[in-house]
Design goal:
- This protein is mostly helical and about 200 residues long.
- The chain has a domain of about 130 residues: Hypothetical protein af1432.
- The longest helix is centred in the first third of the chain and has 21 residues.
- The chain is globular and about 40 Å long.
- The N and C termini lie far apart (about 40 Å).
Length: about 200
C-alpha cells in the first residue's frame, strides 16, 4: 500500500522548495489528465508525485543508484547528467516508496526524454511535467490546451520544444526524444510552439 504522507514527507526533505511544489503540481495535473483520458487517476497522481524524487540528489549518488539498479548508461547519457534523475528516480521509487508497478516506473523513467509509442500513463506524466501549474513560459497556455484536448499533439509539441532548445544550446539530443518527435509528428499537429 502506497503511503502518501510518507512520500510527501520524504520529498519535502529530499527536494529544494521549488522542486517539491513542482512535484505536487505535476501530481495534480497528472491526475487531472488521467480523468480526461481514462487512465488510473491514482497511478497518475503517484507517478507524477515521485517523478523528480532524485532531482536534487548528488550526481555520484545517482550513479550509484543506477549501478545498483543494473542500469547501463549510453555514452550520451553518461555525459548528460540532467537526464540522470529520470533513470535514477525510476529505480529509487521502487525501494524507497514501494512503487513497483511497471507502468508507473516506466512513466518516471521516460518523463524527461519521452520515447516513441509511449503508453497513456507515460504520455500523461511527460506532459504533466510540461504543464504543471507553476510552469510559466511563452506558449505554456497553448501546451495546456493541447494537453487537455489532444495528448499526442501535446507530446509532439513537447518533444519538438526539447529538440529545438537543446540544439540551440549546442547540446546533444537523446535518441528517445528524437524518436518521440518523429513518432508523434503529423500534419494535424497544428501550430508549432516555435517561439519557445
Amino acid at each position: 500500500m502506497v503511503d502518501k504522507l510518507k512520500i510527501i514527507a520524504s520529498l519535502r526533505a529530499r527536494l529544494v522548495e521549488d522542486r517539491f511544489f513542482h512535484s505536487l503540481n505535476v501530481a495534480q495535473m497528472a491526475k487531472e489528465l488521467a480523468a480526461i483520458y481514462g487512465e488510473d487517476e491514482e497511478k497518475a497522481y503517484y507517478a507524477g508525485l515521485v517523478h523528480d524524487c532524485t532531482k536534487n540528489t548528488a550526481p555520484e549518488k545517482q550513479l550509484e543508484i543506477m549501478e545498483q539498479g543494473g542500469l547501463q548508461l549510453t555514452d550520451l547519457e553518461q555525459n548528460s547528467p540532467k537526464l540522470w534523475h529520470a533513470m535514477s528516480g525510476s529505480i529509487f521509487m521502487q525501494s524507497a516508496y514501494e512503487i513497483t508497478d511497471p507502468a508507473m516506473v516506466s512513466a518516471v523513467r521516460y518523463h524527461t526524454t519521452g520515447k516513441a509509442a509511449m503508453s497513456l500513463l507515460e504520455k500523461i506524466i511527460y506532459i504533466a511535467d510540461f504543464t504543471s501549474a507553476e510552469r510559466d513560459y511563452p506558449g505554456v497556455e497553448q501546451m495546456r490546451h493541447f494537453a487537455h484536448t489532444d495528448l499526442d499533439k501535446a507530446v509532439f509539441e513537447g518533444a519538438a520544444f526539447t529538440v529545438k532548445k537543446l540544439q540551440q544550446s549546442g547540446l546533444p539530443v537523446h535518441p528517445d526524444t528524437l524518436a518521440a518527435k518523429d513518432y508523434y509528428q503529423s500534419s494535424e499537429c497544428g501550430m508549432r510552439i516555435s517561439e519557445l
